[in-house]
Amino acid sequence: MRAALDKLELPGTDPAVRARLEEESRAHGIGALRARLADVDPDSAAKLNDERRIIRALEVYEVTGRPFSAFMPTREYVSDTLQIGLNMDRARLHERLHDRVVAMEKAGLLAEVEQLVDRGLRQGKTASRAIGYAQFLRAFEAQTSGADQRYTVAQAIEDTTVATRQFARRQLTWFRADPRVHWFDAESPTLLEDTLTLIQGYIAGSANLA
């Protein structure tokens, strides 16, 4: 979102540097790389826990000589933008997230995972960890290889729901940190009227400035 809306400088990449850092992580553990990152970019080291992101931060520093945190976008729009956010009661949100996962399972998520296994899902560093794919891949393997026969589709649904709730919480935290977002109650009976009023006022204000 920030990359699409805000001014952003994208640092370069170097596959050779990244491959070397990945090998160092396998050999010495991610803790050693995190300690190195803390020496050159303490801001990023304090915020990043994911191995892939820590490696990326070190790659950026080695390639550019600047800390990864220096490339974070500012809250400055590339062009005029209006952001609208929707709030919802937490219990109601959790209910809807669970219903969504159940609907995904009924729509054939397990069969989709089976097809993707033949196309390299297990080897994909990102796709194999994606919410939903990771859990249903485990359920598929339980059915086909007997690796963990106690792990059922029902458990995959539950674990996917929990992971989705955690992801939604992180998303809300991230968006709420941006003071430019205008928040509305997602289930308010006047939601459409309220948001249209905001949008019309924004358009009128932009026209007056043109």
From TrEMBL:
Gene3D superfamilies linked: 1.10.20.140, Crystal structure of tRNA isopentenylpyrophosphate transferase (bh2366) domain
Any one Gene Ontology BP term: tRNA modification
InterPro entries per the UniProt record, alphabetical: Dimethylallyltransferase
Enzyme class: transferase
Pfam families assigned: IPPT
Keyword DNA-binding among UniProt keywords: no
Documented EC number(s): 2.5.1.75
tRNA processing listed as a keyword: yes
GO molecular function: ATP binding; tRNA dimethylallyltransferase activity
Protein keywords: ATP-binding, Magnesium, Nucleotide-binding, Transferase, tRNA processing
UniProt catalytic activity: adenosine(37) in tRNA + dimethylallyl diphosphate = N(6)-dimethylallyladenosine(37) in tRNA + diphosphate
Cofactor field: Mg(2+)
Protein family membership: Belongs to the IPP transferase family.
Function: Catalyzes the transfer of a dimethylallyl group onto the adenine at position 37 in tRNAs that read codons beginning with uridine, leading to the formation of N6-(dimethylallyl)adenosine (i(6)A).
PANTHER family membership: TRNA DIMETHYLALLYLTRANSFERASE
Name of the protein described by the UniProt record: tRNA dimethylallyltransferase
Organism for this UniProt entry: Rothia aeria
